[in-house]
Write a structure and sequence with these properties.
By secondary structure, the chain is α/β, with parallel strands linked by helices. It has 10 helices and 8 strands.
């Protein structure tokens, strides 16, 4: 089970690198990135996007599995991205905003199909964080982001979500973000909850990834950046391996 893997990683202090794949990307682009990611030891792939126009999610998941991906997890922007050949789904509620459609509406629409598909569900508190620009996730959700300079608000949101039963927490600056989630916000959330923390958006290099991990992220997610420059996979995976090796030495 995917969440058991994530829990074990967290329990042992191991850091995880995940690659986010947009189903609208070409098969060639997905193959090139996935092969490089697998070569550098990436085990977790997320599939989804704020806007998916081609209905290609099922094929994208199948392609990743055929290439040898260990875990392929849905990161759906809406219910039409739910397919039955993934290993799990981040069953998300947009807790940073107050738009009822993304707080519970989309989830109600998808629930019966998710159960029928037999997907492992990972209850996930999804929090969009201010990043310096209007991102796709922000625009499509029609909601306000968490202020980037208000870590206390992020922590309170995470605490409330954990009390409601959320087990994973995804702080997202958004696709193409100018700035990643600040380290003081990650630290504040890490010190406030016990679940698995994903950090994504605006992470385009190894130093940014290392800052997120050392601040308390369990999983760092890279998406746009790796498709623009697949070479960063080598650098970021090296940082991940370094942190995990250092942990094992103590």
């Amino acid at each position: 089970m995917v969440f058991s893997y994530l829990q074990e990683q967290r329990k042992t202090g191991s850091k995880t690198l995940a690659v986010l794949v947009d189903p609208d990307d070409s098969e060639t682009a997905v193959r090139n990135v996935a092969e490089m990611a697998l070569m550098h030891g990436v085990e977790l792939f997320l599939v989804g996007g704020s806007i998916v126009t081609r209905g290609n999610t099922q094929n994208c998941v199948e392609q990743l599995k055929n290439l040898g991906a260990r875990y392929v997890v849905l990161f759906p922007g809406n219910e039409i991205q739910v397919v039955n050949n993934a290993d799990a789904i981040l069953f998300m509620s947009l807790v940073s905003g107050r738009n009822p459609e993304f707080l519970i509406g989309k989830q109600v629409n998808a629930a019966a199909w998710v159960r029928k598909a037999g997907l492992e569900t990972i209850p996930t508190a999804y929090m969009i964080v201010e990043s310096g620009k209007m991102t796709s996730a922000l625009y499509m959700s029609q909601s306000l982001p968490l202020p980037s300079d208000k870590p206390d608000i992020a922590a309170a949101t995470a605490i409330a979500s954990e009390m409601l039963g959320m087990r994973a927490f995804y702080l997202d600056a958004g696709s193409g973000a100018e700035n990643p989630v600040k380290t003081n916000m990650i630290k504040k959330v890490r010190n406030s909850i016990s679940g698995v923390i994903f950090i994504g958006g605006g992470i385009r290099n190894a130093p940014a990834a290392e800052k997120a991990w050392t601040a308390g992220a369990d999983v760092v997610v890279i998406g746009n950046g790796v498709f623009e420059d697949p070479g960063i996979l080598k650098e970021i995976s090296a940082v991940c391996n370094k942190l995990n090796t250092t942990r094992q030495e103590f």
